[in-house]
Amino acid sequence: MEPYRAPAPRPPTPAEIEAQRVAAAWVDLRWRRMFSLALFVGFLPVNVVVYVILAMAGITEESKWFAFAYMAICVVSGIRNAFFRCPVCKKMFNLRSLALECMHCGAGPG
Ligand SMILES: [Zn+2]
To answer: What is the pTM of this model?
Structure first.
């Protein structure tokens, strides 16, 4: 027979809160990397499509501004990756954008 009421959930311990924070930071790092990679891979096809669409509308000169803006977003994304802080030691994670472990403490997203 089930109890009348479910027991109240216990509050998370500080260690559990810290583990959740670190896990969320690794998820954030993965998303940042995937976003940067998608931007990098999509640079040529997206810009070709935009150029073709603008050419059909008869305005080819303005496609360079889209390409510049796209490049700027790529640069900002790369800088954001480079300045990711390790959630374990709180220092800069790694200057290599595809590094798998922290250059200070060796922790990584696994
Ligand atoms: Zn670290």
So the answer is: 0.77
